[in-house]
Specification:
about 90 residues
């Protein structure tokens, strides 16, 4: 499988967790995350590789910026990327 830049996913994941106050370190939500990844056909080993792919995903950040409401206070790409790492890196262990 060829890696593809998915900057929008990091932004969307941040918003979902913030809006629904989800904690992916609880047993129920860990199971939910595994189910979501399985449904999207994303192997858990990819979670372990996320940290090494920052620049790949940064590549599509400009297109994300163009689609976000200009009234929204948008952070830099690294903010969303680090948030996902912090909340999901334990899933691949």
């Amino acid at each position: 499988m060829t890696p593809k830049s998915r900057a929008r996913d990091f932004y969307d994941i941040f918003n979902l967790i913030q809006n629904f106050k989800m904690d992916f370190k609880t047993k129920a939500n860990i199971a939910l995350a595994h189910d979501i990844l399985a449904a999207k056909k994303v192997p858990l080993k990819f979670i372990l590789q996320i940290d090494a792919q920052r620049e790949l995903h940064r590549g599509s950040w400009e297109s994300v910026i163009q689609t976000i409401n200009q009234q929204e206070e948008l952070q830099e790409f690294d903010f969303y990327y680090d948030f996902v790492l912090e909340n999901f890196s334990h899933l691949g262990r």
